[in-house]
Amino acid sequence: MMRFQGYTTAAKEMTVREALNSVLDEEMSADPRVFLMGEEVGEYQGAYKVSKGLLQKFGPERVVDTPITEAGFTGIGVGAAYYGLRPVVEFMTFNFAMQAIDHIINSAAKTNYMSAGNISVPIVFRGPNGAAAGVGAQHSHCYAAWYGSCPGLKVLVPYSSEDARGLLKAAIRDPDPVVFLENELMYGERFPVSAEALDSSFCLPIGKAKIEREGKDVTITAFSKMVGLSLEAAEILAKEGISAEVINLRSIRPLDRSTINASVRKTNRLVTVEEGFPQHGVGAEIGMSIVEDSFGYLDAPIERITGADVPMPYAANLERMALPQIEDIVRAAKRVCYRSVPMAATA
């Protein structure tokens, strides 16, 4: 059961899939330069049905079914962006974007800098990122830290339907390349959506986190699907007298360091949550940011909750062990609040 906080003017509910679809429809209607390309985005209506109905409405010149050749169609997309179009390139999974990483980084991310600002690359690379369920190591990698380390890219990670609407609109309208990391398991999740977010002009600022739940005892930072787990952990912690502040990062690059630091200066404790690998991860960057800017405010060591440092197992029981669970977040929050029971006491 997902819990949702912070939606004060909810007018209706919408799945993340519907939110993304509505943005593509609205932005393609508003700007003839916007087009969608990728595997199965047209005739099949999208591998995850995010592009449902768009081929029928906009035709095959603006909803382009491509061969299974990520390097090819991503290069075509970057070239189209050089010439003033605004492509949205869909990957069936971001694991397959490794075929196209040369175009994403060498061709798209670096061009504005290397052209002394003369060439902008208004392109969005989007699709599911991170683990789904039972799809093995080749389909389950979280690339937030990989792309988040690269200057010239913006990296967005929606959680809710409002995130999906506001951030995808911002990404499509942005003059720079944006990596837009969705989550396959979130596409069918329903969220309240405010009347403001349903407006076609609704846009969220890139680089601004959202405090999903306010608290005073411990800060929990998370993104994508991990925000939902963190909110559930906060509910459990509240019943035990621990008030957790949950921050939905929304953006990996740029990272909203000021919001995170302000929260930690209030709570004096930090737990970072991500499903990616621990080494060189997003949590490592956040933790170092706190050490650099707010070390004197910490009352406990920083805790990182991550995926296991192994390629994703295929077996369901091992997969669960390799991914962060609600109880992992609860235990970490208790540890930083010095509320956990020492091992010796249970022996």
Summarize the structure.
Helix content is 37%, strand content 18%. The protein has 347 residues and is α/β, with parallel strands linked by helices.
Structural commentary:
There is one protein chain. By secondary structure, the chain is an alpha/beta fold. The chain is built from 14 helices and 14 strands. The strands form three sheets. Strands 3-2-4-5-7-6-12 form a seven-stranded mixed sheet, with helices on both faces. The chain is globular and about 60 Å long. The relative contact order is 0.13. Mean pLDDT is 95; it is low at 1-8.
Strand order of the largest sheet: 3-2-4-5-7-6-12
Largest sheet: 7 strands, mixed
What is the molecular shape? globular
Extract low-pLDDT stretches. Answer: 1-8
Percent of residues in helices? 25-40%
Kindly name the structural category: alpha/beta
Topology as H/E string? Answer: EHEHEHEHHEHEHEEHEEHEEHEHEHHH
Task: Count helical runs.
Answer: 14
DSSP, total strands: 14
Radius of gyration: 20 Å
Instruction: Give the amount of beta strand, in percent.
Output: 15-25%
Distance between the termini: 34 Å
Mean pLDDT: 95
